[in-house]
Amino acid sequence: xxxxxxxxxxxxxxxxxxxxxxxxxxxxxxxxxxxxxxxxxxxxxxxxxxxxxxxxxxxxxxxxxxxxxxxxxxxxxxxxxxxxxxxxxxxxxxxxxxxxxxxxxxxxxxxxxxxxxxxxxxxxxxxxxxxxxxxxxxxxxxxxxxxxxxxxxxxxxxxxxxxxxxxxxxxxxxxxxxxxxxxxxxxxxxxxxxxxxxxxxxxxxxxxxxxxxxxxxxxxxxxxxxxxxxxxxxxxxxxxxxxxxxxxxxxxxxxxxxxxxxxxxxxxxxxxxxxxxxxxxxxxxxxxxxxxxxxxxxxxxxxxxxxxxxxxxxxxxxxxxxxxxxxxxxxxxxxxxxxxxxxxxxxxxxxxxxxxxxxxxxxxxxxxxxxxxxxxxxxxxxxxxxxxxxxxx
Length: 393
Ligand SMILES: [Zn+2]
Ligand SMILES: [Zn+2]
Hints:
By secondary structure, this protein is mostly helical. It has helices spanning about 50-60, 65-80, 90-105, 115-140, 150-160, 165-180, 195-200, 205-215, 220-225, 225-230, 235-255, 260-280, 300-305, 315-320, 335-345, 360-370; strands at about 10, 15, 20-25, 145, 350, 355. It has a two-stranded antiparallel ribbon with strand order 1-2. It has a two-stranded antiparallel sheet with strand order 3-6.
């Protein structure tokens, strides 16, 4: 069904109504939040002075004297220079978490029961869906609409991932799409794999990124009562869903000692969830082919798609960020998120699922693709000599 009430763009081109398909289109608005909004607009009425004031305030943050001295020491004696101040608190937290996880994994976690492992996979899957189906496809890109029960479920699942607040996540990801691979991109992959993966959380943001973040229109996100609730109780929800619920259940109902349950769920599972999300920003921006647009860095990466529940088809996603599948093909084995969104669409909790028309995808890949799309004829075949019909007799 084609009901395109929305105007979208692909590489700067305004699309016609036939270019956008919507599945399960709603008869009328209902609880729609910003019906035609695609998450990529600028806020209205922000002046240069507003930005300067904000930046001035932001710049009041300074490294401690000890932190500055340590960074200087690293530069002088180890030769490692960074182009921004190191956030030592984040280094200690993220570094400490990873180090402890590796040590504890070999010492204890390895010995937890199969049920605890399965529970960890289940919690990891829920957390992943909260990030991919919630923070990413729903709140950032408005690729579909969700009724209240689904928004609540996705918000709770998102809290299991233990990441930044939803507001910060959405803003950062909108900047990432709008200013990919520039100074304004929070995890600019031109600064290397490590920076795009986790380094961006350990260093001070580039001023251009802070400035552009202020310009992003977040009114739709702030208007959602589910996000308002999340924002108000962010830390309590994070502690509850990332640490308490995942570690209490195996202890209370599955006979696992509390310490093992905690280590398996609050360390190993947490660290894996974080890294699987980060791989989309690092690996999927560096390794893979580009069937839809060879001019951009994001690429198609199957391995990332498997661990990130369908988010590794990143060349496609950056060309059509408003497609609810975040991929052209909907094979569920490498796009678990799409499977769940289709299930929720069946029961009516997800609707107005947006997709580009087949013609638009085909036009785009023929014009800009690198020739690796499955439908692209293999040019080399022309060089294979045609079989001589006389000889084959
Ligand atoms: Zn990206
Ligand atoms: Zn995206």
